[in-house]
Write a structure and sequence with these properties.
The protein is of the alpha+beta class. Helices cover 38% and strands 24% of the residues. It has a 4-stranded antiparallel beta sheet with strand order 1-8-3-6. Strands 2-7-4-5 form a 4-stranded antiparallel beta sheet. Keywords: DNA-binding, Transcription, Transcription regulation.
């Protein structure tokens, strides 16, 4: 957790439950809240002219989102959607700014969170310039596994569907499926019951 739920609620945060596919905010809206996930997951995304989804980030329990733009007068450049059932704490912008000002340690936690998101964006931006599908997937899987304590081979369950991997890397799902099978044949990952172990 970036900020304890009790502290957020004492500052005026409200819990809200979302169902799969429910929109939390839309691209083009003005940011009004700091969000933190109590349980479930959230994805931020965009759609191109043809309707193809591009996932910007996948967020899990304890992650915050929407905080970046609370320090700017800019509209959301992406959507936030609940891909699963989830519960989210939302704190109004003014209350969030007051909370950060009155508790400097939260500034440090927010900076850590922002730094992590920026790092992910830089890794994925570099990855988009790569043409080799294998390199794209290995980069993504290495990034995801980098947060685990156990770095032994095949110890990490990739928490993404093939479609999500495609959306994050800019590839089509068929290319991801073919590349994953090739990586399995080469002994670079294991597939058990459709799940990827890396």
């Amino acid at each position: 957790m970036v900020i304890s739920p009790k502290i957020l609620e004492s500052a005026g945060a409200v819990r809200k439950s979302y169902q799969p596919s429910e929109i939390i905010f839309n691209e083009g809206e003005s940011p009004k809240y700091f969000y933190q996930i109590i349980y479930g997951s959230v994805k931020t995304n965009n759609y191109d002219e043809s309707g193809k989804e591009s996932i910007q980030n996948l967020l899990e329990e304890g992650d915050c989102f929407g905080e970046t733009l609370l320090f700017l007068n800019r509209c959301y450049p992406m959507n936030a959607v609940a891909p699963t059932d989830c519960e989210i704490l939302s704190l109004k912008k003014e209350k969030f700014i007051e909370l950060v000002k009155s508790h400097p340690k939260f500034s440090f936690e927010i900076n850590k969170c922002l730094s992590q998101k920026l790092y992910f964006k830089l890794i994925m931006a570099q990855n988009m310039c790569v043409q080799n599908p294998k390199t794209k997937l290995i980069t993504l899987m290495n990034y995801l596994k980098s947060f685990e304590n156990d770095d032994t081979r095949f110890s990490f369950l990739i928490p993404l569907t093939r479609q999500q991997m495609a959306n994050l890397t800019g590839m089509c799902v068929e290319t991801v499926i073919r590349t994953v099978k090739k990586l399995e044949r080469n002994g670079e990952l294991v597939i058990e019951n459709g799940k990827i172990l890396y």
